[in-house]
Amino acid sequence: MPSIKNLLYTLPAVLPAVLARPHIDRRQTAQTIPGKWIARIEDNEVLDTVLSTVFDAAGVQSTGTYSVGNVKGFNFDGDDAILDILQELGAIKSVEPDVMMHAYVPLHVRQSLHHVRQLPGNGTGNGTFVTQEDAPWGLGRISHKTNAGNGSSYVYDRSAGEDTFIYIIDTGINTEHEEFEGRVTLGESFIQGSEGEDDQGHGTHCAGTAAGTTYGVAKKANLIAVKVLDSEGSGSNSGVLRGIDWAVQHATENGHLDRAVLSMSLGGTFSQTTNDAIEEATNAGAFITVAAGNEGEDASNSSPASAPSACTVGATNLQDARADFSNFGEALDIFAPGEDITSAWIGSSSAQNTISGTSMATPHIAGLAAYLIALEGPKNPAALCERIQSLAQKDILEDVGEGSVNLLAYNGAAN
Question: Peptidase S8/S53 domain: which residues (predicted)?
């Protein structure tokens, strides 16, 4: 039988958990979506049960749910009165405002997004390694230790990401584009009224850099479009959470989670729920690479860039310097080419465009991750990011920004 002394020591530790109230973040910023909220439930709670309790207590119905490991919850519409009621429910862990998420393309480039040119031809090669002549400069840069600038070749192992799966969580993908040779699957759309086709261009561009036959790092990888951004390149954090949830579940159900890469060239204000969801997804086995952001500031201020378990990517230019728009700081894991990147576009089966952003750097790493999975076999996500870092060229970049790593992505194929 426990002594009174032991009970007295135990009670202070137990009471805070019993009496804990949800953390309600009521802050409103320019990026907040008015009246829209993201609730997270306690780890040991059952989502359907909590939804029933919330409806009984506050008359609130979910507008969507997410469940990534222990990070699970629901989206809802409500006001301060509803938040006051939820504050008293022990099953709720936290509530935060839903915020806008945006494609990471610098504002000064967006006006030229719909410029279309003709698709160039692809190069070929022999042996274990393939050489693509006159490749996009980003591909050349990640496959050579010397900077040859524009017109460089891309050297890569002919496995080229075969039997890997890259989930482009973005604006969708132009499935008719010849760059993809039928390797695109339209997954789920979290944009109302859209089935997943790209009506903006950003997602197609990212997909082309990750796995296009001309513009891509992993030219044989499979692509799955998860649409969370609309025709303006904008969406919601709640939609992004649901997109992560869907991608992890899809990869799990189809038996390729250890060969799955989630590429997220988007971001918004800091969200603990989003960062925690990414941690749960990587714990499950999904490699996730995210854009550092284009504000020219510390990446720790935004999500998913600040997620510790994501492989966060900054952008470089042709001069081997950090692009002036690229975020920086301790959140970054790697840099990759992100300025004046040519890739596939929307509007036709051969459209292309040249744009800039950490959005363009990120799919270089998504493709490189898929390339290394095919070449060396699956690794846990942390080990794969570390492998990318170990291959990288060290201390050759200029002005990486305070706290940033000085690592430029490299595939190890050529000198």
Answer: 161-379
Asked whether the bond before 304 is cis by omega within 30 degrees of 0, the reply is yes
Residue 407 near residue 362 (C-beta atoms within 8 A): no
Contact 41, 50 (CB under 8 A): yes
Output the pLDDT for position 107: 52
> Is the pTM value of this prediction over 0.85?
yes
The reply to whether 52 and 164 lie within a common domain is: no
Which residue out of 157, 170, 245, 276 is catalytically annotated? 170
C-beta neighbour count of 256 within 10 angstroms: 15
> Are 17 and 122 in a shared domain?
no
Q: Does the annotation mark 202 as catalytic?
A: yes
Q: Considering 202, 205, 250, 364, which one is annotated as catalytic?
A: 202
Does the active-site annotation cover 23?
Answer: no
Q: Is the domain of 225 the same as that of 205? A: yes
Domain around 216: 107-408
Closest to 352 measured CA to CA, from 201, 222, 218, 233: 201
How far apart, in whole angstroms, are the C-alpha atoms of residue 140 and residue 408? 12
Q: How many domains does the chain have?
A: 2
Please report, for the domain that includes residue 259, its CATH number.
Answer: 3.40.50.200
Q: How large is the average pLDDT for residues 230-240?
A: 97
Residue-wise pLDDT for 271-327, tens only, equals 999 999 999 999 999 999 999 999 999 999 999 999 999 999 999 999 999 999 999
- Tell me the Ramachandran region of residue 388: left when phi exceeds 0, alpha when psi lies from -120 to 50, beta otherwise: alpha
Instruction: Identify whether residues 210 and 82 lie together within a single domain.
Output: no
Please identify which of the residues 67, 326, 359, 404 carries the catalytic annotation. Answer: 359
Is 205 a catalytic site residue? no
Give counts: helices (H), strands (E), the chain: 10, 21
Which residue type is seen at 103? Answer: A
